[in-house]
Amino acid sequence: MSVAPANPLEMLAYVVSKNIQDKQIVYVGTGLPMVGAILAKKTHAPNITLVYESGGQDPIEGSMPWSVADPVTWRKSPITMEMPLSFAQAANGYVDVAFQGAAQIDMYGNLNTHIIGNDFLNPKARLTGSGGGNDLISLTENTIIVGLQTPEKFPVKLDFITSPGHLYGGNSRKEAGLLGNGPVAVITQLGVYDFEPVTKRMRIKSLHPGITIEIAQACTGFELLVPEGEIPVTETPPLDVLEILRNEVDTQKMFISFPPQ
Amino acid sequence: MEFMYATQEQFDRLVDFKGAREYHLSKSRVKKDKRMSLGEAIDRFVQDGDILAETGFSYVRSPIQAYFEIIRQGKKNMVSIGSPMSNTSYLMTANCVYAIHLSYIGVEMRGNDKNFARNIKTKKAEILSIWSHGSMALGFKAAQLGAPFIGSKQLLGSDMLKYNPYVKVIENPVGLDKSEPVVIIPALFPDVCIIHVQKADRYGNAVIEGPAINDIALAAACRKVIITAEKIVPEMSIRELGNACIPFWYVDAVVELPYGALPGCCPGCYYWAREWWEWLVRIGTPKEENVQDVMRYWIYETKDQFEFIEKLGGIRFINHATRLMEAAQANIDDSLVSFDYQEVIPKWD
Fold first, then answer.
1. Would you call B112 and A127 a contact, using CB atoms and an 8 Å cutoff?
2. Domain range enclosing B217
3. Is the N or the C terminus of chain A less surrounded, counting Cβ atoms within 10 Å?
4. B22 in a structural domain
5. Mutate which of B54, B59, B108, B113 to disrupt the A interface (most A C-beta within 10 Å)?
6. CB within 8 Å of chain B, chain A residues 126-155
7. Considering its fold, how many domains does chain B have in total?
8. From the CA of A194, how many Å to the nearest CA of chain B?
9. What angle do CA A247, A253, A258 make, to 5 degrees?
């Protein structure tokens, strides 16, 4: 039987999974990062440990969580932690990578989940607020940002800095007193980006099949840095991995159906 | 500080370390039967103007049926705090809460809460301070530890610092590197919290199964604590395991309230009414009149949790919700249990 090729969200989930290395301790939020992390665990990274802000630690495998505090996130967990202690272990150097989404991302990987519009008291749209987002990116050793890329979602200037990435570039993150490396990668439906080491500006690392620099730039509000030489094409999921993703990870197609529900 | 509704005293009371201590000193130490009805507990221990702390994780082991009772009793002028705090939205609509210390309001992947946004936009309620989950949790934890403040590495570089008058960035005076920036987070002492637990004894010793979130800290910090419990058990059954996380002397009232966390889930007991939340966020919250309809049907025209369950589908709903929770926790053979359900997706949104 033939397998349909990956849709953009499945591709996103796959790239997330490939950014997780075996034996890491991984902080997962809701949505695609969770799908990617569980996929990683079922494929190339069986020895990762998943931890959740709501307190679940190292659950056994289960169905797709409906919430970040779903019982599946502490399914037969040997320990659950109070929320401040769950964040504290990131500050104390026990968490390798955290994943985050956002309504807006700027060229330094700063994130906004508070408001759209520049008047805090009277914004065009009011979003959820920080939740654990600010804590994860402030404390965890590495953060990977996951989201859909549009010029509105990747603006020149954020309407509000909820979660600090590389702040204003250069050494500004370190000078602000934040822990860890901050954002190390951005994964979207178009490509994978990293941050140029000196300026800390977002730079193309690879583009998904069929995506050109022009398309990526057209979907970005700020100027993307382009590396020298040929830009690699992001690896697409092998069919067996796709089947695991569809049949064993997000079986209800909560996060990987396209167009999104 | 200038506020629209909150008083300066209400604003200061949250960080009144000594005031909270005085209050705790004044509380009765008598180990007595504190059982009472939900109505009486809310009437006696939730007062107009209180700072109410949201407990659980928005819709995981949160005392939602007790919040509905607060609405039915028409409490007023309260300030809300918590991380997360998704139930404050309708407490604002019901005129119970007029100000908020905000960390997160929404229903995760189900979406932003447009009712909350509208309540702020129309000035029905105001935001007093802004927090991340972790920084607010540290404020509660500091209170539990008896520490006037905690130094943290959250919030640095964030615009939240501009909208949080309680916290302060300083250079770490005791660090190896004296120029290292840290954020000073004061201990936070809300007036009252309602904590829903799986079991408690009649005196208030309480056991939590699953994530405790901020509740152990809040029980120690809050001036008044109401326990609502799925089950009241003999004191000896708690003594045998020695696993209470809230001691009786913190507790003012104990309410036996099976299904008290519905429409949220309660670990070890029942799964969410998932469609209810999607209905609320995707159909209920976009328009003010829809919110009013939701509140009329589910709160004002519903006497208690049992009538609420009848509206959700009665024994079939409860059986399914119980089964899903047991399956999610791997307490039963879940190989034939399906988590599939019909998601609520309005065509016009």
1. yes
2. 8-148+188-256
3. N
4. yes
5. B108
6. 126-135, 138-139
7. 1
8. 21
9. 120
pLDDT by residue (tens digit) across A237-251?
Answer: 999 999 999 999 988
Segment 166-205 of chain A within 8 Å of chain B by CB:
167, 172-173, 176-179
Residue of A nearest to B119 (CA): A126
Q: How far apart are CA A30 and CA B8, in angstroms?
A: 38
Count residue pairs from A and B with Cβ separation < 8 A. Answer: 186
- Decide if B83 is inside a domain: yes
CA distances from A163 to A34, A102, A108 (A): 19, 9, 11
DSSP-assigned states of every residue in A48-73:
-EEE-TTSBBSPPP-S--SSTT-GGG
Rounded Cα gap, residues B13 and B22, in angstroms:
12
Q: Does domain A8-249 have CATH number 3.40.1080.10?
A: yes
Distance in angstroms (rounded) separating the CA atoms of residues A223 and A203? 9
State the pTM of this model: 0.96
Are A129 and B102 inside 8 Å of each other by CB? yes
**A96, A26 Cβ separation under 8 angstroms:** yes
Residues of A assigned a catalytic role? 53
User: Using an 8 Å Cβ cutoff, are B261 and B63 in contact?
Assistant: yes
3-state class (DSSP) for residue B253: strand
Is B17 contained in some domain?
Answer: yes
- What mean pLDDT do residues B25-49 have? 98
ipTM for the complex shown: 0.95
Phi, psi values for residue B228, rounded to 5°: -110, 135
**Nearest-by-CA chain A residue for B180:** A177
Measured between CA atoms, the residue of chain A closest to residue B209 is: A80
Kind of pairing, strands A183-187 and A104-105? unpaired
| Inter-chain CB proximity B106 and A162 less than 8 Å | no
pLDDT along chain A (261 residues), means of 10: 85 96 90 90 96 92 85 94 96 96 94 92 90 96 95 96 97 97 97 98 97 97 97 96 94 83 61
CA dist B263 and B272 (Å) reads 6
Q: Which residues contact A64 (CB under 8 A, 6 or more apart)?
A: A34, A35, A38, A72, A249, A250, A251, A252, A254, A255, B339
* CATH number reported for the structural domain that contains residue B198 in this entry: 3.40.1080.10
Contact flag A128-B109 (C-beta cutoff 8 Å) = no
B58 CB neighbours in chain A (<8 A) are: 69
